[in-house]
Design goal:
- The complex is a heterodimer of chains A (about 475) and B (about 70).
- Chain A is α+β, with helices and mostly antiparallel strands and about 475 residues long.
- Chain A has helices spanning about 10-15, 25-35, 45-60, 105-115, 155-165, 180-185, 220-230, 250-255, 275-285, 300-325, 330-340, 345-365, 395-400, 405-410, 440-450; strands at about 40-45, 75-80, 115-120, 135, 140, 140-145, 145-150, 170-175, 190, 210-215, 260-265, 290-295, 370-375, 385-390, 395, 415-420, 430-435.
- In chain A, a hairpin with a 3-residue loop joins β4 (about 135) and β5.
- In chain A, α7 packs antiparallel against α15 (about 440-450).
- Chain B has helices spanning about 5-10, 20-30, 35-55.
- Classes of the chains: A alpha+beta (about 475), B mainly alpha (about 70).
- The interface of A and B includes residues 195, 341, 342, 346 and 352 of A.
């Protein structure tokens, strides 16, 4: 492949603004990397659009016209985001004949307005249902650190593209863990914001009450900047009404101040592989965290989210489930069909449990600013591996990688997935969980750890990049 | 304890009776289950039943369902 590039987005901006390179040159390099992508991260490349935008940025710079804070930074998006003129496939075969999107998704619009250059669309689990990105139609995305292993999912292409040096910034979505799991397994930073913080307009839906969108990046500063640039109310997303609350300018001060940190025990420690708990301890020690904090009802919250997901999704997919079930990825199809057969009263009950758990979580946050938990049960499983061991039992990889992420997204809390710096070892991430609307606390805790060298985006071995 | 009859019937299933439930429910809904899907659907349905039983035990099912208000 073309040489991988591990500069941060802000470093790319700096190089362009200092005249060391141009937006066009950066775009051409990113397009070359996309075309020789060794990870099967990309499913489409938008060369013409990217080059037109890059040339416009270079023209603005040459004429001393103002440019956006991400001017010339290549980025890519999970292929469930609308891109004007492109069919939004959402990892499926079923949508390949759908008409092209009339407009970019709001998140894509906002990053583009900030000068970021869209390079292409990225692989995912079909309709975002899964944690593995072993897509039956587009093939598996390979982990940049070991191509025999999965990238995680469902935003696996996004994490692999950032972790593998293809682009410094990517967008994904997270319904039950689909940003946090692949970020953890690919050794990059990911942010799942508070539900309702970032507009989901133009992102193909999966589960209305659980869907979030968010960025992947190689540094906390890049993550915070991309997040800030996508904030703001969107009349096209009824949940997205919050005014802009920039996090980046506040992070240094919060990171330098006291932070009350707890480590979730109970459900969040059961079944985790020893190396996952070791990685968590590194972070917990650095943040002087109190251990063994109980989040009452976490297992029940996970069960509720687990049930809500296929039932709500089956409603969305009902027409296609009735008429063309065999066009789905089998691993997704059987779960959606099971959801269709489950009484709606189960989903209603799952929604009724949500305020119960939300109150319990609020109670815990009275004593803490952020809570820590593993992002995934284990480091990346192998491609094709269907089961893994949890607490001495063989369980499904697809259904259990998100055991620690599902309770948190069930109540829409913001989480930074941060890659623990363990040189030479497979990537493992931790969840840094904050109260609703306090993304700044999670980002600041991640920044403190990054400054101490304890979390860092992992550079894959040369042989794999 | 579930008072909704459909929910009560679902929660009362065991792993041996889920397959028959799946067939009957699919027929009632007019949903054809292709043969290659049936084993996977039954396995997933059994898992959903077990998960539903996990959190249903913590709920007061006599309270009427109310529309959920958006609140993260």
């Amino acid at each position: 492949m073309s040489a991988a590039d591990f500069r941060s987005a802000l470093a790319v901006v700096g190089d362009i603004q200092r005249g060391k390179t141009t937006a066009r040159s950066e775009t051409e390099a990113a397009l070359a990397r996309a075309k020789s992508d060794p990870f099967n991260a990309y499913t489409a490349v938008f060369a013409e659009r990217a080059l037109v935008q890059a040339e416009a940025i270079d023209a603005d710079l040459a004429a001393d016209r103002p440019v956006g804070p991400l001017a010339g930074v290549p980025f890519a998006v999970k292929n469930l985001f609308d891109v004007e003129g492109v069919t939004t496939i959402a990892g499926s075969r079923i949508r390949r004949d759908a008409p092209p999107a009339a407009h970019d998704a709001t998140a894509v619009q906002r990053l583009t307005a900030a000068g970021a250059v869209l390079i292409g669309a990225l692989n995912m689990d079909e309709f975002a249902y899964g944690f593995v990105t072993e897509n039956a139609h587009d093939g598996p995305t390979r982990n940049p650190h070991d191509p025999t292993r999965i990238a995680g999912g469902s935003s696996g292409g996004s994490a692999a593209a950032v972790g593998g040096g293809l682009v410094p910034l990517a967008l994904g979505s997270d319904t039950n863990g689909s940003i946090r799991i692949p970020a953890s397994l690919c050794g990059v930073f990911g942010l799942k914001p508070t539900l309702g913080r970032l507009s989901r307009q133009g992102a193909f839906p999966f589960v209305e009450s659980l869907d979030h969108v968010g960025p992947f990046a190689r540094s906390v500063a890049d993550l915070a900047l991309a997040y800030d640039l996508m904030q703001g109310p969107d009349p096209l997303d009824p949940l997205c009404r919050r005014p802009v609350e920039p996090a980046a300018p506040r992070l240094q001060a919060i990171a330098d101040g006291p932070l009350r940190v707890g480590v979730l025990g109970g459900w969040f420690a059961q079944g985790a592989f020893p190396e996952v708990l070791e990685a968590l301890e590194i972070v917990a020690d650095a943040l002087q965290a109190r251990r063994g904090v109980e989040l009452p009802g976490a297992e029940l919250a996970r069960a509720a989210a687990f049930c809500l997901t296929p039932i709500e999704a089956a409603h969305l997919h009902w027409p296609d489930l009735k008429t063309r079930p065999l066009d789905y990825d089998p691993a997704v199809r059987d779960r959606l069909l099971a959801g269709a057969l489950t009484p709606d009263a189960v989903a209603e009950a799952a929604r009724r449990y949500r305020p119960v758990f939300r109150d319990a979580v609020r109670g815990v946050f009275e004593d803490f600013d952020v809570l820590l938990a593993p992002a995934s049960v284990c480091p990346a499983p192998g491609i094709g591996q269907t089961t893994m061991e949890m607490d001495g039992q063989q369980v499904s990889v697809r259904k259990n990688l998100g055991a620690y992420t599902q309770p948190i997204s069930y109540v829409g809390l913001p989480v930074v997935a941060a890659p623990v710096n363990r040189p030479g070892k497979p990537p493992i991430g931790v969840q840094i969980i904050a109260p609703a609307w306090r993304e700044d606390l999670a980002l600041a805790a991640a920044l403190r750890l990054e400054r101490a060298g304890l979390v860092a985006a992992h550079r894959p071995p040369e042989a794999h990049a | 304890m579930a008072t909704d009859p459909a929910l009560a019937a679902f929660l009362a299933l065991d792993d041996d009776t889920v397959a028959a439930y799946a067939d009957a429910r699919a027929e009632a809904l007019g949903l054809a289950l292709p043969p290659e899907t049936r084993a996977g659907v039954v396995e997933n349905l059994a898992l959903l039943r077990r998960q539903a039983a996990t959190f249903m035990a913590a709920l007061d099912d006599t309270a009427p369902p109310a529309p959920e208000v958006f609140e993260p």
